[in-house]
Amino acid sequence: MTGTVVKSTGSWYLVRGHADGQLYKCRLRGKFKNKGLKVSNPIAVGDEVTIEPEGGENQGVITDIKLRRNYIIRKSTHKAHHSHIVASNLDQAFLVVTLVSPRTSFGFIDRFLVTAEAYDIPATLLFNKLDLYDEDALGYMKQVMQLYSQVGYPCYPLSAHTGEGLEQVQELLADKVSLFTGHSGVGKSTLVNALVPDLDIKTSEISAFSDKGVHTTTFAEMFEVEPGTYLIDTPGIKELGVVEMKREEIAHYFPEMRARLNKCKYNNCVHVNEPGCAVQEAVKKGKIALPRYESYLSLLQDEDSHR
After folding, report:
1. Where does this protein hold GTP (predicted)?
2. What are the structural domains of the chain?
3. 264 marked as binding residue
């Protein structure tokens, strides 16, 4: 029998059966190898798995995991030199950002976008807390939105609090598996609840299956908004280290740099201080935004420190 993992508590996995739509509480059978990936979670929300009934009613074991189409991965907060797969098999990802209380940094936004680019996941930026912006903040938000729109990332201003701009986002969810993530405090939970009004019912359905009284790490959770439309909610991410990326690859995941890579004088150019570098030239001329280039340099430094 096959199904999709909708929640993980670390020891138990909740799997929604493809044939019957039922929830099955499953354990893992044996060790699962992740093709050389050092991950703290062998199975992630969104994974397609094979299960066999075992134990009581609606219980089973996961015997196999299908090849992932893609995934969002970050550095593990618990295990050194390990990564954590946030969710897999996504059609799109939404990063909720705020420019006031708290302010999302360019570095955080760009790290997320680079990760999404690396795994071919279309990404969209949602600028929340519109109701808190004064005229200056609105002007600044428009500039930031223009910066990312020009590079090819759709940007939507909204307020989860007042409901402004939510309709547009709701339309984007139809018939897709969508991931929602962001820093703690950006209002992501309020937004997810506003987008899926009966989420409380769905949450309690899933919670009823989870271990009671056991302290479990909060992992991502998948909800069926309507048939064929799924939303994956994630706990707030403090930091987002880029994983599995070689130094010379990083520029490929910045679309505005990728477009200029074959114009550099040297094939192995890393766009820092090489002569005849098309990327540095574009930064000087304002064709590549300075905050984006600074994020790129910061990612290079990260890689250097992990060598």
Report:
1. 128-131, 182-190
2. 2-67 (2.40.50.140), 73-79+86-233 (3.40.50.300), 250-301 (1.10.40.50)
3. yes
